[in-house]
């Protein structure tokens, strides 16, 4: 490719909409020597989205609007994704990034991981880096345990740290979803420390294929016990969802978002505290 064509390829304006995930079942099975834990879970993508805008070439800049992202902007996962690729592709043109943050943070919805994974994919496509899905998953795993899932971004049974992904057939399009985040920020590393890893009492990989109506009391999230104990309001949210007709309800990841699965277009009109963030995905 000539220099002129290669430069042209790197001139782009792009907006993508990173989505969130929920965990359906989650078991922490082993504490590892590297400080992480082995787990098994089923990841399911849902359409609550951020907006990620990237302009190239530019001066390397990051700005955000919407929900305030805690911490220093230099540590934002979007920039970390850029720097990670730049290490291996030193000629990667600098980009101007704007993130509009809509996915609640510290909610177990993987929003930061989604932003990072979408950034990797965008740079790979627009700057024609030629990375395969497997290579992108390797990069994503360096940015966070939830991050590789968003490269696949389809229902997956996950093991390892969360990066060993096996796509599964799980179509929940016949249901509506209610996501409630009461504003409690749960630290993921704190949540892992509350658990004693153990082998699960049932095979999640098989039980997830049962009808959703059979999941209650079968498919569980190990984090619910300690996180509900620390924040009893969360158990109340889950209970309200069942009272409102949810077919299944669970906390997502290490919390604190609670998700209810309802019959299609039959999400109950539950009155929530005005400070809660409530999302209906019909
Ligand atoms: C709880 C889940 O959301 C379930 O999908 C994920 O396991 C969390 O993934 P994540 O937020 O991407 O987590 P990371 O950013 O990789 O790690 C944050 C911290 O959580 C703990 N951590 C995370 C993932 C894992 N498999 N074992 C861990 O022990 C570690 O203390 C780590 O320092
Ligand atoms: N683009 C980003 N969006 C959100 N958080 C970010 C971002 N970049 C860095 N962070 C940092 O990551 C932390 C957690 O982000 P995230 O929203 O992925 O957590 P979470 O909802 O608990 O997800 P998980 O399911 O991965 O635990 C925040 O406290 C924030 O400081």
UniProtKB/TrEMBL annotation:
Which ranges carry the GHMP kinase C-terminal domain? 222-268
InterPro entries cross-referenced by the UniProt entry = GHMP_kinase_C_dom, GHMP_kinase_C_sf, GHMP_kinase_N_dom, IspE, Ribosomal_Su5_D2-typ_SF, Ribsml_uS5_D2-typ_fold_subgr
GO BP annotations, alphabetical order: isopentenyl diphosphate biosynthetic process, methylerythritol 4-phosphate pathway; terpenoid biosynthetic process
Keywords per UniProt: ATP-binding, Isoprene biosynthesis, Kinase, Nucleotide-binding, Transferase
Q: What is its EC number?
A: 2.7.1.148
Give the reaction(s) catalysed.
Answer: 4-CDP-2-C-methyl-D-erythritol + ATP = 4-CDP-2-C-methyl-D-erythritol 2-phosphate + ADP + H(+)
What are the positions of the active site? 21, 146
Q: In which pathway does it act?
A: Isoprenoid biosynthesis; isopentenyl diphosphate biosynthesis via DXP pathway; isopentenyl diphosphate from 1-deoxy-D-xylulose 5-phosphate: step 3/6
Single GO molecular-function term?
4-(cytidine 5'-diphospho)-2-C-methyl-D-erythritol kinase activity
Q: Kindly indicate whether the keyword Flavoprotein belongs to this entry.
A: no
Q: List residues of the GHMP kinase N-terminal domain.
A: 76-151
Q: Name one Pfam family in it.
A: GHMP_kinases_C
In which residues is ATP bound?
104-114
Which family, according to the similarity comment? Belongs to the GHMP kinase family. IspE subfamily.
HAMAP family, alphabetized: IspE
Stated role: Catalyzes the phosphorylation of the position 2 hydroxy group of 4-diphosphocytidyl-2C-methyl-D-erythritol.
The protein's name? 4-diphosphocytidyl-2-C-methyl-D-erythritol kinase
State which gene encodes it.
ispE
């Amino acid at each position: 490719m000539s220099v002129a064509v290669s430069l042209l390829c790197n001139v782009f304006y792009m907006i993508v909409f990173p989505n969130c995930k929920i965990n359906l079942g989650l078991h922490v099975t082993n504490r590892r020597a590297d400080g992480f834990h082995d787990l098994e879970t089923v990841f399911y993508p849902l359409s609550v989205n951020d907006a990620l805008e990237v302009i190239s070439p530019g001066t390397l800049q990051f700005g955000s609007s919407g929900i305030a992202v805690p911490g220093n902007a230099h540590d934002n996962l979007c920039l970390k994704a850029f720097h990670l690729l730049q290490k291996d592709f030193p000629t990667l043109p600098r980009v101007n990034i704007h993130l509009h943050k809509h996915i609640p943070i510290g909610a177990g919805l993987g929003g930061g991981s989604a932003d990072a994974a979408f950034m990797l994919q965008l740079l790979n496509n627009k700057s024609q880096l030629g990375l395969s899905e497997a290579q992108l998953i390797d990069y994503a795993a360096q940015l966070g345990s939830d991050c590789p899932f968003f490269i696949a971004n389809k229902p997956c049974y996950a093991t390892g740290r969360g990066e060993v992904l096996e796509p599964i057939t799980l179509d929940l399009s016949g249901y509506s979803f209610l996501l409630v985040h009461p504003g409690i920020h749960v630290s993921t590393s704190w949540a892992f420390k509350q658990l004693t890893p153990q082998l699960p009492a049932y095979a999640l990989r098989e039980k997830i294929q049962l009808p959703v109506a059979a999941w209650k009391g079968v498919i569980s999230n190990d984090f619910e016990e300690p996180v509900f104990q620390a924040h009893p309001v969360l158990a109340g949210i889950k209970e309200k969802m069942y009272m409102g007709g949810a077919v299944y309800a669970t906390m997502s990841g290490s919390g604190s978002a609670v998700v209810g699965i309802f019959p299609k277009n039959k999400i109950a009109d539950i009155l929530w505290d005005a400070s809660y963030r409530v999302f209906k995905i019909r």
